[in-house]
Amino acid sequence: MQKVAIILAEDHGLVRQRLKRLLAEEPGFQLVAETADGLSALRRVIELRPDVLVTDLVMPGLHGLELTRCVREQAPETRVVIVSIHADELYVAQALRHGAMGYIRKDETGRSLVPAVRAAIAGKRYLSPAVAELAARPSTARAPQTPPAPAGSLGSRQRSVLLLVAQGYTDAEIGFFLKLTAGQVARLRLRLMRKLGVQNEADLTEAARKKGLAGRAF
Q1: pLDDT confidence tier of residue 218, bands split at 50, 70 and 90
Q2: Domain coordinates in residue numbering, the chain
Q3: In whole angstroms, what is the distance from residue 82 CA to residue 104 CA?
Q4: Are 99 and 68 in contact (CB under 8 A)?
Q5: Contact present, 117 and 31 (Cβ < 8 Å)
Q6: For residues 100 and 70, is the Cβ–Cβ distance under 8 A?
Q7: Statement: the pTM of the whole predicted model exceeds 0.85
Q8: Fold exhibited by the domain 156-210
Q9: Tens digits of per-residue pLDDT, 62-96?
Q10: Rounded distance, CA 14 to CA 97, Å?
Q11: Is the distance from CB of 92 to CB of 131 less than 8 angstroms?
Q12: Do 103 and 80 touch, CB atoms closer than 8 A?
């Protein structure tokens, strides 16, 4: 029987080792790659086309929500399972809306990680018990203390371009990540500069920092 190919993305070393052990204990699973940041995770998913990506929500390089959206667009055959300490109902709702098949609270990985991966492979959604209990409650419409994605008037793709520009990636590299041509990225960059009222790349990077998109792991 062919094993389930899995990529693991988790920036905390001890947590990553625990998740690796849990996956290794399941005979039908094969960990084909691991990484500590969102951009590397996206690269590996595009390259290896695994069955499942198990990813943290808050990571350097690319937020888990944005990573999930990019995987859904660029490698739709790969199912995403999120493992996070953040279990606020708005985080969960946004993750599922972005295409995640599973959402597990980190303190429930021991009993929930394998079932979540199995469910994802079967095309079914899985929420760990505490997350499922939260999701079943009437919505309070409250906002999480730390937003799952940077606030502001920029759209999801604009935030992605701004983040990657701020980290020094070229138009061609950004195009690879976002499945755009270099020309499309250049036009997005110019529109961003006009929208943010800046004149050069240095000012664009500073704008990214002010919006929480540079110089932090988010």
Answers
A1: very low
A2: 4-136, 156-210
A3: 6
A4: yes
A5: no
A6: no
A7: no
A8: Arc Repressor Mutant, subunit A (1.10.10)
A9: 888 889 989 999 999 999 999 988 777 777 888 88
A10: 29
A11: yes
A12: no
CA distance 113 to 127: 10
Tokens of 29: 């699973």
**DSSP class of 179:** T
Fold observed for domain 4-136: Rossmann fold (3.40.50)
Q: Where are the alpha helices (DSSP H) in 63-181?
A: 64-74, 89-97, 109-121, 129-136, 156-166, 171-178
Among 15, 14, 55, 66, CA closest to 33: 55
**Cβ within 8 Å of residue 172, ≥6 positions away:** 182, 185
Please state, in angstroms and as integers, the Cα–Cα distance from residue 154 to each residue in 3, 106, 159, 191, 212, following that order.
41, 30, 6, 11, 12
Token pair, residue 35, equals 């990484």
Taking a C-beta distance cutoff of 8 angstroms, is the pair 178, 157 a contact? Answer: yes
Q: Per the structure block, which two tokens stand in for 8? A: 């693991």
- Per the CB < 8 A criterion, the answer to whether 114 and 122 are in contact is no
Is there a shared CATH topology between the 4-136 domain and the 156-210 domain? Answer: no
Residue type, 151: A
